[in-house]
Task: structure prediction
Amino acid sequence: MRSIWAVAVNTVKQALRMKIALIFILLLAVLLPIMALTGTGDNTFKGRLQTFVSYGLSLTNLLLCLLTLIVSVFTLTSDIEHRQIYTVITKPIRRSQFIFGKLLGVLLLSGALLVLFSGVIYGIVVYAPNYLHPSQSELAQANNEFYTARKALSPPDPDVSKEVAEARNRLTKSGDIDQIYAGMSSAEIDEQLTNLRRVAGRTADVGQELIWEFENVRPSDPNGSLFIRFKIEVAVTPPDAQIYSRWAVGDYRRYVAGTAPMYPFQRKDPVKSFREIEIPAAAVADDGYLAVVFLNEPLNDTPVTFPLADGIKVLYKADTFTANFIRAVLIIACRQIFLACLGIFGATFLSLPVALLLCIAVFFTANVSAFVIESFDYINSESTFFIYLYTIKLFVSLMPQFDKYSPSQYLVPAELLSWSTLGWVVFYLVCIKSMLLLILALTVFSFRELARIII
Amino acid sequence: MEYAVETFSLTKIFSDWWGRHKVYAVDDLNLKIKRNEVFGLLGPNGSGKTTTIKVLLGLLHPTKGRSLCLGGHATDPKISARIGFLPEESYLYKYLNARETLDFYGRLFGLDRDVRKTRIEALLDMVGLKAVANRAVGTFSKGMARRIGLAQALINDPDLLILDEPTTGLDPIGTRQIKDLIIKLAQRGKTVLLCSHLLADVEDVCDRIAILYGGKVQANGKVAELLQQTDKRQIITDAISDEAIEKIKRIVHAENAECEVSSPMNKLETFFINTVVAAQRSSKQTSGAVSTTKIGNFLTVESVSRNILDKLVATPVSQETPAESPATEDTTPAKIAETQPDNQLLRDLTESTTPMQPVPTGLNAETQPVQTDVPTPPDQVKEDVLDQLTGRAKAQSEKHEEKDDAKAGESGDA
Result:
């Protein structure tokens, strides 16, 4: 244990005194305050906070991830290349202990910097009301929509399999199916048809109503507020790009029975941007049921659609901003652990430039892997590149999906990042993927001839 | 366990990327290095010395055969805790300073803080880098880096010391110091494997040598036996008269033999040390390593006598001196040895006109009693060597002599 610690401390000294870490520290120390001063967002107080958190945390994440990679690759390749390892590994330290020491040193350094700079971001955000002097209403908006952690509920997707089957039969009978969906597999045709039905279910013609029913809505404060977060897309954009609408929120079952009213709202919102409606928590029924009704005002003269993924959500406060922020930072910490293991693994059998190139390639692939996997799903699997496709897809699936769980994706809309979500990230990224890399690194390193120079 | 290092048909072949055998770096090597032996591995560049050491230490895997260090494999922490290793260049962390470097290696050995601290100070003192202990090692000259490299190899007080070209880049005083150190460690029962192509160094300290060429042992044996010219005799006398020489020549001719008479030359090493000491006496400042002849206290704890070295260098022993005599005759208590500075040594070195002798592990039976030396109080040990060597030191030592005369009765040492 003592020798692991000695190697770890030496690794930290190496990164600091060789000035690798210094460059990243300087960059962050300069860029973060500049961002805090210049980011304006949509010119509201909340907008400024969102812009700063989004860019600040992304920058910290990017730079510290790169730092972790560079230091972990450098510290091991440099020891081997400059042969300090001759005098170290011949001391009473096992090779695995040496690797653990290096890993610990890298994580101590990048972890400390993560704590430092996320602390700076947190400080700037939390004390923003003291130096930006927002108006009362702006502050209230920020408290409700930013300084909080809200659980987001999407309406359940309706079962459209019956309609899809019907539509398919109809198309097959008329023979149109080969023309419209030429070259597609039946699974892909089904998926397209399903999406079409679902979008149709979220589209309101002029003067038409849409109704969504949510279950299990449990706001922590019964006297607090809930939020309906929505985004509108239109077939024909009106001249002022604004949509007039009427909403009603409440217990639709009792409203139909005539025992309770619904809360009505009249609104005018820009298209293609996220908007929020604040409603009292009392609108939710005792059993956690909540209905949201939308009416497309005839004034609009265009059908209105709520996009599938994030068209409409109900948000309510479930945790504090601080707890959410800490969990978001822990996601970055998980990435650092993975990248440190990756860097050490690369350095056990590659020279500095090659190992670094490999790691950076993996890092950037991981940043887009969820997107890549999705796009592979759209490629025709019956094509001639069948095997090729599956090897790449397998390779990309092994990568972590950094873009699937990004910290700012939760903090900007003040959406709850639950412990269970974080648990998944820890399990997959740290317990499975990082451990796999670490075991590989230990195996390669313990069998390697250290005095043999890799050219 | 009789052997400290053993190899059994050790073979190392370097192959190219395709696995084709290219170079036989070590070829069927069977080395047996006894405990408490100073063993020299000689050979020209590329003869397989360093490769042998790397295989011994587990830095390379043998292609065939196997090797044992201290009865086990050197990668076993229990074994490596007893090994000291100085590679062919002192591969150090450039960004650490000298003290941090030694502290780092001390921690790898799991030494306690107190032990680390005392050993580091003693070693820094010994290698003469105390004044620059807070400077980054990367700024050191090659010789200074070598000294730190040596210090890290000694921090665990190893039973087996493996030195690969220890004297490259060192000034003659440093070289001499390493040789003295090797002798001293051997006296304490340590085993030293010395790898070098500087023959003079090996000749001075090694009990046994093996000469490698092309990865194979070409010659192997005791230095004294390998080098002794049994068909020649050498007689060294004081400056005697020409008549006496003529008489001797006549006697020799009567034996039907040839006879050459000349005055012995000083070794360049002795001359160099003389010059440096003279410069130190005139208090010239140096930004480099301070030349000392100290040896870390903890490395000499069990040593038989503080005076062994002094005796060895001051005594004009002839080339033919048998090497077998055990170290028995000195009676000075070991306790005093711990606290003795070696400041006397340099003076003795400069006053001695005899070339350095090949020094056997044990003590020479012929060793003459050394001039009465004065024990200095313990607090003197870490005093600056420069001071001790300059006039001030002389004055002090005179004072000590007076003091110690008075003390002699109680200590019973004078």
